[in-house]
Predict the structure.
Amino acid sequence: MKRIVLFLAVFALIFGTAAAEKKASATKPAPGVKVVTLPENTKNEDILNAIKKSYKGTVVVIDFWATWCGPCMAAMKSIDPIKEKYLKDKKKVSFVYVTGETSPLADFNKAIPSIKGYHYRLSNAQFKALMSSLGIRGIPSYMIVNKDGSKAYDNIAQGGYPGDDIIIAEVDKALAK
């Protein structure tokens, strides 16, 4: 009898978790939220360029984050009014969010509906390679990219949210180029 109960418990755990993961991956994003996947053959050294390539002609604010990072989530709330203003004013600014598999898929899908922008959830290998190639030591970290794809600003060496005033000033500077 104990074996049957144990078998049923394990069966429920395995198939219940698989069903929850499947449901989480099937969640449809809200308007203004787009989940983007890099081509599978993207080499680690080409990840940033592959991301930037899609937004040529716009200023890009790239936010390196994770679902479990409290400061990341707080910074996203802080930047929302800034983002809304650029969107409302029809400025050519794209907001890109990059995380890895340390953000579990269910948590990722739960978090992003309230975060307008383009979302990349990289594999662990891709995220580690990107973090290493850029020298990112902690999250959140930010990079602003000019319309031509060149770097306008980053706070990668310091990390953390640089503040609304800096984000606005750097985006405006990049828009003026």
Remarks:
- The beta strands are 33-36, 59-64, 93-99, 117-121, 141-145, 151-154.
- Residues 1-26 have pLDDT under 50 and may be disordered.
